[in-house]
Design a protein that fits this description.
The chain has 168 residues and is an alpha+beta fold. The protein contains five helices and three strands, in the order H-E-H-E-E-H-H-H. Helix 3 packs across helix 5. The chain starts with 7 loop residues before the first helix and ends in a 15-residue tail after the last helix.
Length: 168
C-alpha cells in the first residue's frame, strides 16, 4: 500500500507557508502562491469572493486589497478537517494543479486531426514529458478539450435533423 504521509520538509520552509501581512502584487500572485503551498501540502484550492461553504474543511488564505497597490494576507488557517491530504506525487491530479498550456492544446488538436486516438495521443504526450505526473493535466482534461473544440466548431446545420410527418 502506498504511503500517503505528507513530506512537510518543503511545506515547512519559511518561503512557502502563508503568513499574516504577507504582501502580493496581484490577486493572481496570491492565488499562485497559495496554490503552490496547496500542491506541496497535498490539497486543491478554489477562489471565493464570499465564503459560503458550510461543510468546508477549514483551510484557507484570505487576502485583502485595501492596502494601496498590494494584496495582504489577513487570515490564514492551515488545519484541514473532514478529509485526508494526498501525497505530493498525486497532487497533479487535483483540479487546481491542472492546466493545459496553449502549446499542449495545439498539440492535442494536431494529434486529433491526424487520426490518432485520444488515449494513444495522451500516452504519447505523457511519454514526451517523462510521465503523467509531469504533463500538467489528466486524460479527462484532454477529452474535455476535444469536446469543447468540437462543440465550438459545430455550426448551424452541422447536426442531423429529423422531420416527422403525420401518418395517414
Amino acid at each position: 500500500m502506498e504511503d500517503l504521509s505528507i513530506d512537510h520538509t518543503l511545506a515547512s520552509s519559511e518561503e512557502i507557508i502563508p503568513k499574516i501581512n504577507m504582501e502580493f502584487d496581484s490577486e493572481d500572485a496570491a492565488y499562485n502562491f497559495y496554490n503552490e503551498y496547496a500542491r506541496v501540502t497535498g490539497f486543491s484550492i478554489r477562489r471565493h469572493t464570499v465564503h459560503k461553504d458550510i461543510n468546508d474543511c477549514g483551510a484557507m488564505m484570505k487576502i485583502n486589497g485595501r492596502y494601496g497597490s498590494k494584496y495582504k494576507v489577513v487570515h490564514f488557517v492551515s488545519e484541514h478537517k473532514g478529509h485526508d491530504l494526498v501525497s505530493p506525487s498525486k497532487a497533479y491530479m487535483l483540479k487546481s494543479h491542472r492546466r493545459m498550456t496553449e502549446v499542449q492544446a495545439s498539440q492535442v488538436d494536431d494529434l486529433d486531426c491526424s487520426g490518432i486516438t485520444p488515449r494513444v495521443s495522451f500516452a504519447l504526450m505523457s511519454k514526451q514529458v517523462g510521465g503523467r505526473e509531469n504533463i500538467g493535466f489528466i486524460f479527462e482534461d484532454y477529452k474535455n478539450h476535444l469536446h469543447s473544440k468540437r462543440t465550438t466548431q459545430m455550426k448551424c446545420g452541422d447536426t442531423a435533423g429529423y422531420t416527422y410527418k403525420r401518418g395517414n
